[in-house]
Amino acid sequence: VQLVESGGGLVQPGGSLRLSCAASGFTYSSYNMSWFRQAPGKERELVAFIDTVAGSTNYADSVKGRFTISRENAKNTVYLQMNSLKPEDTGVYYCAARPAYRGASTYFTEYDYWGQGTQVTVSS
């Protein structure tokens, strides 16, 4: 099983980044996908969630209206488009997979598979 994130980097406040997460080794279309982030000294938090068929999404209040999660099941890939970035968005961003039959969850301990993370730094 592999989840490989890419697209992180250094961006100025107000800028944009698009993160990608390529999945392999499991039945991707049967898994709900989420993006989490972790800032230094803080707990890992859910940023965005998308169900198996992209019919349902959910976002942390802090990113609503700025971030968009999407997925392409044909490419086994989930994306996170991040606009109007703020310094408080800085952290390591992880994609995570949870089987759809277990429903949605906001707790990072309840996800089966994780990527290695990609650093996002928002700074002038």
Assembly annotation: single chain
Strand percentage, roughly? over 45%
Give the low-confidence spans: none
Q: SS-based structural class? A: mainly beta
What percent of the residues sit in helical stretches (DSSP H or I)?
Answer: under 10%
Mean pLDDT: 95
What Rg do the Cα atoms give?
13 Å
Largest sheet: 7 strands, mixed
Which outline best applies? globular
Listing every helix as H and every strand as E from the N terminus to the C terminus, the arrangement reads: EEEEEEEEEEE
Number of helices: 0
- The end-to-end distance, rounded to whole angstroms, is 37 Å
Number of strands: 11
Secondary structure layout plus pairing:
Elements: E1 2-6, E2 9-11, E3 17-24, E4 31-38, E5 45-50, E6 57-59, E7 67-72, E8 77-82, E9 91-99, E10 113-114, E11 118-122
Summarize the structure.
This protein has 124 residues and is mainly beta. It contains no helices and eleven strands.
Give a structural overview:
- 0% of the residues lie in helices and 49% in strands.
- The protein contains no helices and eleven strands.
- The strands form two sheets. Strands 2, 4, 5, 6, 9, 10 and 11 form a seven-stranded mixed β-sheet that branches. The chain has a four-stranded antiparallel β-sheet with strand order 1-3-8-7, with no helix packed on it.
- The model has no long low-confidence stretch (mean pLDDT 95).
